[in-house]
Design goal:
The protein has 79 residues and is mainly alpha-helical. It has one domain (2-78): Orthogonal Bundle (434 Repressor (Amino-terminal Domain)). 54% of the residues lie in helices and 5% in strands. It has helices spanning 5-14, 19-26, 30-37, 45-54, 72-78; strands at 2-3, 66-67. Strands 1-2 form a two-stranded antiparallel sheet. The longest helix has 10 residues, at 5-14. The two termini are 22 Å apart. The mean pLDDT is 90.
């Protein structure tokens, strides 16, 4: 499984939250949060937990932030 950074950004925007507001939640700079949201700096489990709480994403909806990496070979089997 891979973390879907695009979904993270989409959820933040949908909630009407700014990059600065999310940075404040993590206690980091706006620039550092932006790099985390874009996958340039690692997002820790602790970061994700704080972000999910701010976005009000319940535990049963956490899977929206993850995509299953499917190989081309597996995709061809389905076709």
């Amino acid at each position: 499984m891979r973390f879907n950074y695009n979904r993270l950004k989409a959820e933040r925007i949908a909630q009407g939250l700014t990059v600065q507001e999310m940075a404040d939640v993590l206690g980091i700079s706006k620039s550092a949060y932006s790099k985390k949201e874009n996958g340039k700096i690692a997002l820790t489990v602790e970061d994700f937990s704080l972000i999910a709480n701010k976005l009000e994403v319940s535990k049963d909806r956490m899977e929206i932030f993850f995509t299953k990496k499917v190989s081309v070979m597996e995709t061809e089997k389905i076709s």
